[in-house]
Model the fold of this input.
Amino acid sequence: MKINKFVIGGAMILGAVVFLIWTATASNLEFFMTVDELNAKGQSVVDKNLRVSGAVIGDSIQYDAQNLTLTFEVAHVPGDSPDITTEGGLAEALHQAVMDPSRARMKVVYVGVKPDLLRNEAQAIMTGHLGADGVFYAEELLLKCPTRYEEAVPEQAG
Amino acid sequence: MLANFGYGILFITFLVTLYSVFAAIYGESKKMPAMVESARRAMLLTWPLLTLTAGILIYLLVNNHFEVQFVYEVTSRSMPTYLKVTAWWGGQAGSLLFWSWLMSAFASLVTLRKWDRDRELLPWVILVACITMAFFIGMNVFFENPFAQLYQTSTAIEAHTFQPANSILFTPQDGRGLNPLLRHPGMVIHPPMLYLGFVSFVIPYAFAMAALITGRTDDRWIRLTRRWTLWAWLFLSFGLVLGGRWAYDVLGWGGYWGWDPVEIAAFMPWLTGTAFLHSVMIQEKRGMLKHWNMLLIILTYDLVIFGTFLTRSGVLSSVHAFAQSAIGPLFMGFVALTLVSSVGLIIYRWDSLRSETEMTSLLSREALFLLNNLMFISILVVCFWGVIFPLISELFTGQKVTVGPPFYERATGPLFATLMLLMGIAPLSAWGHSTVKTLGQTIWKPTAGAVIVTAIIFATYTRNVYAIIGFFLVAFVILVTLYEYWRGANARQKSQNENIFTSFWNLTGRNRRRYGGYIIHLSMMLMAIGILGIELFQVETQGTVQQGESLSLANYELRYKEIAQWDDLPSGVNYRRAVLDVYQDDQYLGQLVPRIDYYYDSQQNMTIPGQRSTMKDDLYVLLVDWEPASAAGATFKIYVNPLVNWLWLGSLLFLAGIIIAAWPERELEPVIVRANRHVQQTSAAD
Done:
C-alpha cells in the first residue's frame, strides 16, 4: 500500500511542533507560590523560576534611587480565587493581609525602576527566585490595585 | 429615571432579538416568507434601539450621573468630554453594550443588501446574528447592567437595577475616573478597532452556518463574505498594532508586546482568521479544504467570543484564576454550545464538503498554502497551551505552574520563520503541480539576491545568528515579492504596450486581492525588521544624575538640564517634566522631555517617555524618580531600540495593502469552470 506523502509530511510537522512546545515548556516553567508555600518549601525551591503574589506592606517600601534598588515586604495572600472570595474579594483580602501581623511575610529586592502602582495594599506579582538568604529577588514586578479600578492592570493591553 | 428608561429599552431589544430568532426558524420551517421578512425587520430594529440605549448611556456619562454605578466607576468630573464618551467601552458592562451595538450595525448592513439569489440563506444568517446578539444583550440585561444605580439602604450602599424597599438613591460627589493609563488617544481607538474586527468575523461565520444548514456547500458563502472577512481582518490587525503602539508610548517598559494572556486572547482569532483568509483561496481555485475552511471560521468565531470575554471581563485580573464572575461560566457555555453545534453541522454535511480535486504535489501552491495553515494553527496551539497550561498543570499535579514570555518566544520563533519562508516560496509555485526544477528556475534569482544582502548585513551590522536568519528571510521575501511584481508588470508592459508605471498600476488594479496581498506580505517584512531590531538589539541603561551631568548609551549622550513641576488644577493632574539635551557623537540633536503625570483623583502616576525616533533607532527615555528636596538629582532609564520604527512604518503599508485588497472590484469576475463540476460563478455580490 502506498503511504501518502502528505500523511508522512503532516506527521513530521506535528511531531516537530509537539517537540517544540514540549521543550519550550520544560525550559520555561514558572511555579506559582504563595508566601506561605514558599516559607514551607524553603531551600528546596532556591533555583527554580518562581512567581509569587503578595500584599505590599506600605511602611516597608524603601527605594534607593542612586542604585535603583527597591526593597519592600509582602504579606501572604491566598492563591486560590475561592479563598480570596471568602475573604471578601481581592481588595479586602489584601487589606486583611496587611493588617494582620501574624501573617507570613517575605522581604523582596528588586533592582530597577520603582513602579507607579507600588503602594500599601497593592497586590505585587513577582517573578524571580528565592535567594539562599530567604530574600526574594524579583526580576519582574507587576502591581495591581483592585480597590480602585475594574481593570488596573498596566501590562494588560486590552 | 433616565437610567431606568435605558434599561427598559435594552430589555425590549433583548426581546426583539429573541423574537427574531423564533420568527426566522418558524417562518423557514413553515415556509412563510412573510414571517422571515418579519424576522428581518425585527433585526433591523435592533440597531436604532441599541443606538438609543447607547445614547442614553453616553448622556449619563457626559453629564456626571454618578448615581449610575457604571458612570461612577469609569468617569470623574475632571475628565474631558471626549474621554467621558469613550469611557463607554472603559468598563465591562459598557463594552458588552458596545459589542452588541456594533453587532446590530453589521447585521443590519448585511440584511440591507440584495438577497434575491441567496434568499434561502437569509433566515439562517438572521438566526446566527440574533442568537449572538441575544447572548450579549442578555449579559447586559441579567448580569452586567450598565444602568444599575446606587442605592443607600439601612446597612450599605449597593448597586441595583430596581430600587430596593426602604432605600434612597445615592449620588456620589465624584466618580472614580478612568484609569489614567487608558486616558490616551491610542486607547480611545484601540478597543473599538479590536471590537470592529471581532464583530465583523461574526458575519462570515453566520453565512458559513447558513451554508451548512441549507446544504449550499459550494463556495458561495465564501464569495459573499470575502470582503467582510478582509475588513474584519483589517480592523483586528490594526487593533493589535494600535495596542502595541499604545503600550510602547504609555506603559514605559520600552516594549510593545508582552505575551500577556489578554494580548494572546486578541491574537488567537487573528491567527485563525489569517489562516482562513489564505485557505479560502484554495477552495475558490481548487475546490479543496472545505471542511477545513468551515472549521477555521468556527474557531475564529468562538475565539472572538472567548477573546471578548478575556479582554474585558477582568477575569484575568487575578493571575491564577479563570471565570470567577457570574458571566464566566455563561461565556464558556456559549462558546462550548456554538462550537459543538457548528462542528456537528460540519459532520452532518461531511459528504457534500468533499474535495473536488486531489492534492498531488508537495510543492504545489495548495500544498504550500496548507503548510502555511498548519503553521498558523501551530502558533495558535502554542498560544492556547500557554494560556491554559496553569489550569492543566494544577489539575494533574496540584501545583500551579505557568510559562512566561520566553516560552512563547522560543516556541513560536521557528514557526514564524517557517511562515516567512513559505511567504517567499508560495507566490512562485504553481497551482496543481510544481517540482523542484520549475520552482528553482524562478526562485534562484531572489535567493541569490537575499544571500548577497545577508552577507552585507553580516559584514557590517551583526553576527547574531538569529538576526542573520531573520534578515535573510526578510530579504528573501521582499525580493521574491518585488520580483513577482516586476514579472507581472513586465509581461503586461510587453503585451499591452504600456509604460512600466502604467503596467504596475493596472496590474494591481486588475488583481487587487493578489497584489494587495503581496503589499501585505511586504508590510509584514518591514514589521519583521522592526521586531528583529527591538527584540535582538535593544540596549538599556539607568542611572541617577545631577543637573549638568550626563548619561550615555550606544553612541548617544544625554545631559540632564532641568526639571519643572506644576499643577494643572482643572484637569487634576500634577506634571513633572525633565529636560535633557541629546548628543550623538558630540553633535547636538535636540531635547527630550520625559515626564511623570500624577493624577490626584486616582492617586496614580503615569510615566510618559521622551522619544526620538529615526529609521535607524529610537531613543526612549523615562523619568523614573527625582528628589524634590535637593531638586537637582533625577533618575532616568534609557533604552535604544534599533529599527523599531520599521514596525510602525510596516503597519501603515499594511493598511494600504489591505485597502487595495478589499477595494470593491469594478469589473465582473471571470467565470471559472472547474474540470469536474459545474458551479455557476458570479460576481461577489456585496
